[in-house]
Amino acid sequence: MDLQAFILCGKGAALAPFTQTRGDSGLSKALLPVANRRMIEYVLDWCEQANFSEVVVVADSDESSQIQDALNTYIEIRKRQHALLAQHGPSVTGVAPLQPVPIKFLVARNETTGAILQKELLPRIKGDFVLLPCDFVTEIPPQIFIDQFRNKDPDNLAMAVRYRNTFDSFDKKHLAVSYTVYSENEDSVKQPVLLDAYSQEDVDRSKYLQARSHLLWRYPNTSISKKLLDASVYFCSFELAELLQPVDPSAARSETESENDDDAIVSPPQNHLVQPIRFRAKNKLLKDPINCNKPLSKVFRDLARRSWQHSTPRETIGLFILPSLGLFIRSNILSAYMEANRCMLRVRSSLFATHGPSGMGNAVGGDSIVGANSTILEKTSIKLSVLGKNCRIGKRCRIVGSILLDNVEIEDECVLENVIVGSFSKVGKKCKLTNSYIEGSYVVGAKTVVKGETLAHIYLDESDQSSASSESSGDDDSSDEYADDYYDEEFEDDGLFER
């Protein structure tokens, strides 16, 4: 199955102050390191296993060139690896090695991911495709996803992926918890179907979760779960491109006039991207008006509602719940980002021991990674931590479960537990930092004791102040991705069902 893959690189507002949403001291979200590798490289490795026909990295103009420059080395190394396999692979395995999947870059000009899909990605889509975030790490092979999608029900337009939170260290206050409404279909050969989704804030504001009678009548085996997290992975059929294709009013009017004129010669519509529907042999695909000027999660939520809101049957959105036995984690909040680093450290330590630079009496655990050109002085202990390149750690320090980005300086007798330190930051002598975050280029004074705080620069720019006020009021699309005026919107009752 030839699939195009589109990797959508978001701003990473929930990862502030380490992303570019907090001034020039941050990185692009896709380039934040996980175990000293850029997080998008894990997604590209996963795509390489899937052997997609094409991989397109989508980011806005501010970050696209930065991501492309950072990935040039990754692409070059991958080409060399495939060249070596081409020289020696056939003689060993008897099978010619696969060619590297082409990686392309696309500058997004729209703000929301739904608008990017409709206005910028649809013209590039040639067949079935998959939409991916730039921030997930998994040990579940892509063939599991592809096989599930290949065996989907005939009336499924797409397959949305959900996963369970298996980590107690996640900060529940910042986790984007949602209520997932789906049909389990336990006593049926049909696969689970996504029906609706509500944010925690939306339910709290309304004081209840409303399930329409249309939904319950059509799907009596409906379940509601609060433990399923959105993986932001969507495997989509080619027919979805036709459904989301913007409708040209003049073209629709001319087609109507042609239908009324018996002698008129009906010509095929111009720029028609989609071939005749494969799985809708009896019923033509009904094009309902769908507002795509919103995040992808809301677009697919609206597509899921579409399947039960109308009297005429509509296509469904399949649901694939990842098995809990396999690791899947998105680095979309800071606590999840730290846990992703720890997971990769455990995987690395189980494969081979990692030794830090030689020194007098220092102790770098096998579950830690130390970047190039870093210096660690004597009697310092580092466990389950990641140190970037060009870091300097003083004497008699203890660093546990922490992430130090590049060019960080830690002076003597400091204790860091579960801390993220941004690039070019400095921590003074005899500091004790616990469960805290330090923005890049920040200087922590000597003998500072901090627990559960974020140490960041104060920006006096008006635009930053307005964005900070909106963040404090909870007006952030990443944390409220399902909140809308659902309860206020008009619902057309077709009269089939009694309320």
From TrEMBL:
Keywords: Cytoplasm, Initiation factor, Protein biosynthesis. Residues 473-485 have a biased composition (Acidic residues). Residues 462-485 are annotated as: Disordered. Its main location: cytoplasm. GO terms for biological process: cytoplasmic translational initiation. It holds the Pfam family NTP_transferase. GO terms for cellular component: cytosol; eukaryotic translation initiation factor 2B complex. CDD domains: LbH_eIF2B_gamma_C (cd04652). One of its GO terms (molecular function) is translation initiation factor activity. It is found in: Cytoplasm, Cytosol. Coiled coil: none annotated. The keyword DNA damage does not apply. Belongs to the eIF-2B gamma/epsilon subunits family. PANTHER family: TRANSLATION INITIATION FACTOR EIF-2B SUBUNIT GAMMA. Component of the translation initiation factor 2B (eIF2B) complex which is a heterodecamer of two sets of five different subunits: alpha, beta, gamma, delta and epsilon. Subunits alpha, beta and delta comprise a regulatory subcomplex and subunits epsilon and gamma comprise a catalytic subcomplex. Within the complex, the hexameric regulatory complex resides at the center, with the two heterodimeric catalytic subcomplexes bound on opposite sides. Acts as a component of the translation initiation factor 2B (eIF2B) complex, which catalyzes the exchange of GDP for GTP on the eukaryotic initiation factor 2 (eIF2) complex gamma subunit. Its guanine nucleotide exchange factor activity is repressed when bound to eIF2 complex phosphorylated on the alpha subunit, thereby limiting the amount of methionyl-initiator methionine tRNA available to the ribosome and consequently global translation is repressed. This is Translation initiation factor eIF2B subunit gamma. It comes from Lachancea meyersii CBS 8951.
